[in-house]
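Let's sit down with a protein and look at its sequence and fold side by side. Please make up or recall a protein chain and show it to me in full. Label the sequence line and the structure token line clearly, so we can match residues to local backbone shapes. Go ahead whenever you are ready, and we will take it from there.
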Amino acid sequence: MKAYIVGVGMTKFEKPETRDWQYWDMVREAGTAALADAGVRYDQVEHVPVGYCFQASTAGQRAVYELGLTGVPVYNVNNNCATGSTALMLARQFVEGGGSDCVLAVGFEKMARGSLGGGSGGGDFATSPVARHYGIMAAGHGFVNAPPTAQIFGNAAREHMERYGTTPAQLAAVGAKNHRHSAHNPYAQFQDPYTVDEVLASRTVHDPLTKLQCSPTSDGAAAAVVVSERFAERHGLGERAVEIAAQAMTTDTDASFASGSCIDAVGAPMTKAAAEQVYAASGLGPDDLDVIELHDCFSINELLTYEALGLCGEGESGKLVASGATTYGGRWVVNPSGGLISKGHPLGATGIAQAAELTWQLRGEAGARQVPGARTALAHNIGLGGAAVVTLLRRGA
């Protein structure tokens, strides 16, 4: 049975402590918007997977109780930065399995100010769920006094530069592009454009990554209503429906660790495997895509993801972004929302916010950031530890 997104909603992503709100306030705002967008009542919802990383168990129930007290099953989901897309995947599976007609996927995060630590599990790195990944980095590059996620991705950037001649300006071009895109997104945490030179001149977080190439900590929530084809037909939702044409999740294999490379440890092999599964299941490929939202937690990860998704060959991603192929007027528009770098990155909400942006794009409702004629879209969401989720969306019939 096919699954369709028929309603989406999100809050503005904001710097932590900007607004005096609780996580359930965020979910009430995003969830109410998604239900209204779909024209669906909360008492029609049969399951609610809720994604978050930094709250206690059953926080999902506390959050969605703001939408109604119907006794609906609520599932608490945590998959590091891939949490939101994991919740969306569960929603799709409920519907495609044939047992449910209407499911609400929700993601939220209320974060602390400052750089993200080594993983949502907390504690020291010896017992962290990502200790093995950081061990790869430490063996090859050492471990210094800098944010650990910036270190591992920064070292992946150094490896890419050494192997392929990728330049600091090409890395900075990712940040400049995504900040430029977010200027047209009212939901984005940052809406100021920057030049490549300004991105390069911003504070170094971990060489070669500067502040304007790194995603910030953020507060925010997003929600999506996923329904069956029969539900969409019964309720006259076909005109606004976006089909989840294919979706895949992969986790780490030996390829993440065997090489000793930070490029592999941060998930490039997972992304490649998930993309290949999605292309095979949908019968579509990179050349069929119009718009892409991908996990640019750091500028280097956007470049790595270009290669893993098959937008270019290995080592060619720096030249690809510099050519303008991944912005308006190019072959694809990548991260029209501003991506994680500029839209923001509240971990549990990110994957569903990507789906919201692409739903608006495929409906032609993205305003000044609309990609002309967009019919097919791809979302990529990844979390260290690890999980990669790739989702292919197309405008429903």
